[in-house]
Amino acid sequence: MESNLILQHNILYSRGYQKVQSSEHYFPDHALGIMLSGESHYFSNEGTFVMTEGTICLMRRNQLFKKLKKPGPTGEPPSLISVFLDQNALHQYATDNTIPKQPTYKGQAMIDLTGNVFLKGFFDSLLPYRDHPKKLTAKMAALKTAEAIELLLQTGDVFRPFLFDFQEPYKIDLETYMNHHFQYNIPLSSFANLAGRSLSTFKRDFTKIFDTTPKKWLQQKRLEQAHYLISTKRLRPSAVYLEVGFENLSHFSSAFKKKFGVNASDL
């Protein structure tokens, strides 16, 4: 279980209550966050990024990753504050400050900014609103968002293309992309956006390539991967179903038996 308190439309405070919580995320906007307590492990094609208490991280938009939240060393639940830098705010900032068109950003998707005293001070200034969210008005949130952008630009030149590369995902090789990302349990609309397509075009292209619907293909692919992990890697079904993209164990178990004719646990 996780409690999310939206202080304003783009500023979020979240706190977990389960001992270990696994989830998958797709952020259409850049996210700047600080870990207040506990731990968050982010798994993506770039590798693993771990946030512990005090870690400050900037995450690039249009990224897909799995997240595992855990209590800290003394048992405190994971909690963090995130500021989402949406495209409207960045376009407005670029216009107001005459920032020219930027080249395509090709650097890291997750940047560690821990130790930046100015960003630490920025997040410290948001903490009082956690207990008094009504004090964070829309106007104040807009000012805070602009402050975050300004602080990032002062940190280094790399953040200008990071923030102001407004190009949308281009139409990529769908077969390769889906075979690398099928285990992420996100809506089809998110898969479509990441593949540079509208939802209708995504479904049409998908059917041409795989000769089946995305829903059927995803379930079959995830079940085949689960069978491999259980039978060859000797992993338990309870350790596999989330890894391959199923939401709950009971649905996974029934789908597995229907396809393979045997209970996953019997393997």
TrEMBL record:
MF terms in GO: DNA-binding transcription factor activity; sequence-specific DNA binding
Pfam families: ExsA_N, HTH_18
Family matches, as InterPro entries: AraC_XylS_family_regulators, ExsA-like_N, Homeodomain-like_sf, HTH-like, HTH_AraC
Domain HTH araC/xylS-type: 172-267
Keywords: DNA-binding, Transcription, Transcription regulation
The name this protein goes by in its record: Helix-turn-helix domain-containing protein
Native source organism of the sequence: Spirosoma endbachense
